[in-house]
Design goal:
The chain is α/β, with parallel strands linked by helices and about 450 residues long. It contains 15 helices and 17 strands.
Length: about 450
């Protein structure tokens, strides 16, 4: 029996492009950079005076994005695409009601209608809001067509897709950004500024999560695609909201890098029950645990705790905690900061004092005018608008984007690597260096700003 288990383990690792080392860590493969390519750290592209945008996928996220993008200075939506013609018509009507120029390209009716949008001449940026399974092929083809791409979360589902996007970005020199809106939450942006200025001392541990009961939303996912995906795959399948903001605080691939990951999960209690109720028959092989916990260690000896739970009545939380040698920040369940105030003492700040402290550390990328506009336009309290604004701003000024393809890779890899850990008895898994050796060339996260 032991020999059979070892043979099966070897087969799983080979299929994943991995091998087991003498220290019981699963090693991952870092493919050689194709000849003629160079890394995309700090990559810029020619400035675009007016960013012409094609939006693919006009369901929950895409239809809202069309309206938001139309309100970003220097942006215009020139193409719309969805498998369902009615959605394209509805977004086209929204542009008309807003008094915006009509989209010159309307695509629908075929599974690969998006190819026409990617080929359209007056599109600079392809903004992808489809179901997860279609993110990768659309992004790859859009970059091949010379377009920049912005991809809803998660942008890639397995290691092959992740490395494919990294290589395509490096090859074409087109931006490939994941639309991780939670890094633009006002609390997270202010806390990041505090960390950059050393207010917490050295940050040594961070936490993030996606805890969100999806019971009210399962019907909103076209053809049940999201629940079906959860039924097939173990691991933290939706890690980016939790890990994105805390990776910026730690400066991941900007002076530090993730090296090792370990995951554990519960059995599927509610997941199998929900799937059975929706299918009208027993579902006994629901793969995703109701709760998945992932621990990650960095090159510099720091740690991350990431959690995923969309199946229980647990209150909404992205957990967001920053632990430093001299201070602490947390957003859930209450917003607070805590700092050393003397020997064996600490000072906790919340309420009005917290608001006053945050005013001292306003993030350099968000002016008071931009914050007011973002809250007026909306989108998760304004962070969606800040995300779109910063993307367009950087493209217009020929600046590096706030999130590059390596952020995309690092934040998405938690899904397949946590799955690999779980399927091998919570064995440690190596996190590859997606920059292929350049992870410490840039020191610390920063926002690119144009000279006025």
């Amino acid at each position: 029996m032991k020999r059979v288990v070892l043979v099966l383990l070897a087969a799983v690792l080979v299929a994943a492009g991995c091998c087991k080392s003498s220290d019981n860590t699963i090693r991952t493969t870092v493919p050689a950079r194709p000849a003629g390519q160079q890394d995309a750290l700090g990559m810029t592209a020619e400035p675009i005076e007016t960013v012409r945008i094609g939006v693919v996928g006009l369901g929950m996220r895409g239809s809202d994005a069309v309206e938001r993008l139309s309100l970003v200075p220097g942006a215009v939506v020139t193409a719309l695409c969805d498998l369902l013609p009615g959605r394209v018509d509805a977004s086209a009507a929204d542009l008309e009601k807003m008094g915006k120029p009509a989209a010159t390209g309307l695509y629908s009716g075929e599974p690969e209608s998006w190819r026409g949008l990617c080929e359209q001449g007056d599109v600079d940026l392809v903004y992808i809001c489809t179901d997860w399974l279609n993110h990768y092929p659309i992004a790859m083809y859009a970059m091949e067509c010379g377009k920049h791409v912005a991809i809803e979360v998660p942008a890639a589902l397995d290691m092959d897709e992740i490395w494919g996007l990294v290589n395509q970005c490096e090859k074409t020199r087109r931006h490939c950004m994941m639309l991780e809106n939670c890094v633009y939450d006002f609390f997270e942006m202010t806390t990041l500024e505090m960390a950059r200025r050393g207010l917490f001392g050295e940050v040594i541990h961070v936490e993030g999560s996606y805890l969100h009961n999806l019971d009210p939303y399962w019907d909103e996912y076209w053809n049940n695609w999201r629940l079906d995906y959860n039924s097939k795959y173990r691991g933290d399948v939706y890690p980016t909201h939790g890990i994105g903001p805390v990776c910026q605080v730690l400066g991941i691939h900007r002076g530090d890098r993730m090296t090792t990951l370990v995951a554990m999960d519960t059995r599927s209690f509610n997941g199998a029950k929900i799937a059975s109720e929706r299918a009208g028959e027993p579902v006994t092989d629901f793969a995703n645990g109701d709760e998945t916990t992932t621990m990650i260690r960095t090159e510099k000896g720091k740690t991350l705790l990431i959690e995923h739970d969309v199946m229980t009545p647990r209150p909404y939380s992205r957990m967001y905690q920053v632990v430093g040698t001299e201070g602490y920040a947390a957003k859930y369940p209450i917003r607070q900061y805590c700092f050393r105030a003397g020997e064996k003492r600490e000072k906790t700040i919340s309420g009005e004092a917290l608001e006053a402290l945050q005013a001292e550390y306003r993030n350099t990328a968000v002016t008071p005018e931009l914050e007011r506009l973002a809250k007026e336009v909306g989108g998760h309290g304004g962070m969606d608008y800040i995300m779109d604004y910063r993307l367009v701003y950087c493209l217009r000024h020929g600046l590096p984007l706030d999130m590059d393809v390596y952020d995309l890779a690092e934040w998405c890899c938690v899904a397949p690597l946590s799955r690999l850990s779980l399927e091998n008895g919570s064995m440690p898994v190596e996190v590859p260096d997606f920059t292929r050796g350049a992870w410490d060339r840039v020191q610390g996260f920063s926002y690119a700003l144009a000279e006025e």
